[in-house]
Fold this protein.
Amino acid sequence: MNSVVGAVMRAAVEGFTNPSGAESHRKDPIYADAIAIILTFTISILILSLAGLWLWNFSVVPLFEFARPAKSVFQILGLMLFLSLVHP
């Protein structure tokens, strides 16, 4: 799945950096790969955060009385970071 998303992002970046397809405008593939990796990481974190916010507010909060609703995506990002530090 990661390679598919990476290939799609690489193609999108190449389309923006070389819209005419000319060889004279062709960028270094490392540059395109780096942008594709950054875009893939950003989009995946955004999707995970939004899904985590929705799951927290609509699954965890109704099940447990001590849990309060999350007000921001940044709270979910902080929770994800905390859990990754606690459980390596």
User: Anything to note?
Assistant: Residues 6 and 37 are 7 Å apart (CA to CA). The helical segments are 2-17, 29-63, 73-86.
